[in-house]
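Give me structure tokens for this 530-residue protein.
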Amino acid sequence: MAQFDHDVVIIGSGASGGMAAYVLAQAGVKCLMLEAGPMVDFTRHRSMKAVYDLPYRGFGEPGRFPHITQASEFDANLWIDEKKNPYTHPENDPYYWVRIRLVGGKTLRWGRASWRLSDYEFKCKDHDGWGENWPITLADLAPYYDRVEPLIRVSGRNEGWAQMPDGKLLADESTDSLSIQRFNASAKKLGVPTTKPRRATGTLASSVNLLLPVAQATGNLTIVPNAIVRELGVDPKTGLVNAVHYVDRRSKREYTVPAKVLLLGASTLESTRLLLNSKSRQYPAGLANSSGVLGRYLFDQFYVKNTVTALVPEARGGKGPRNLMGGAGYVPRFTNLKPGKPEKNYLRGWAWDFGSGGTPSPELFPQWGTELAQTMADVQGAGFGMTTMGESLPRFEHRISIHPTLKDEWGTPAPHIEQRYTENEHNMAKDAMESGVALCEGAGFEVLAAHAQMVPPGESIHELGTCRMGADPKKSVLNGFNQAHDVRNLFVLDGSAFPSGGVQNPTLTIMALTMRASEYLMEQKKQGKL
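Here you go.
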């Protein structure tokens, strides 16, 4: 058994694991962090190479990343190797599980969009009758949002909209380009709200830059990289977690460390996979799974990339004024905001990111050769594009389970993932496309293409649910402080805790929930309950 001096074990080093270490280490709690991947070697990993020096000329080794559309040979070291880390899904319902195993986790590449959830999400069942409410409200989490937003320096505009709660923001007072102004005016005529993007500023807004260095500087955080956790041990007398069993990624040697309190933040599907694999006499269906819902209610936000691609006519040939193009904006959910029966043919809603100044894809022009080259020169920088993010409904049948025979490179049983988009999501995507076309045409833009084809589930990298919190232990795994109903010294901090998710990117909420849970943990320890 490996020996460390620690009060808590944290699994994962991303948004949730990093925030837990940040809070606890500064409060004097000795933390041991286990991360499945290595530390980033910025000198070696950021070296520049020409395309002709790469074995596959930038396209990457075939079969290494079949589901990770974001990966290329230029950044292959960032992404998990699917040959070594396999999983399965139904043949006709693909799931794109996007993973990073490095210290810092997926915060190394997150898009930094930082929107608060609202009571449309926290009290979703009260609003339209579907699903389950969260056991907390916006008022419960707002004090933690207030502290996280300045920490990661979120910029944007407060608009006073219930579906997009105001925050502690760096005010974005930048002037919109003329094309953005025209789009905003078109949206206003149709009753559609628009605002500035809201995002963590700077390229360094990651766990490895903002959270872990502060925790390490206290002397209370020890990080063990390359530690792939396989199973959690349980005390047969108390039913509490008492050990973590992991394998060294390189040597494949097995280790065990004791655990007084366990904080799990390995990411939604990895955390739930670990709990399902941690079976014992007390928990034959998986650790903390007396409810039977562990692994159930998997969902994400669906994406329709380039929902509408348009041209700003005055920008063709580079003839427009300098302030015509450029910039970006956001449209929050604005459908089905009245309680009760929805006015649309779907539940919940969707949002848009939009941007000005790109160049449309050559695929949109039925030309080739010199003619195509001339057209591309003419439309360079004249594009206007929109991407749709829509809310997916959590459903009992959408789940992660353990494959009966398939294992990863380190002998851990692999997951089987089942999720598909339903009529509700398809109706939403179609409405978003048609609405986007109307707004662009109202702005005087030339619409080149529009579609409602969603990327496969998982590709948005916003997987949520499967270990959800709730007030009823028979319907949920965790309480409102991310603490397992069945195992009081187990906290699950990542997106798996979400009962619903809205259209908002989840990272800000994961950080706020983790800060709240970490402070609750310390209070429980003071009271002798942990």
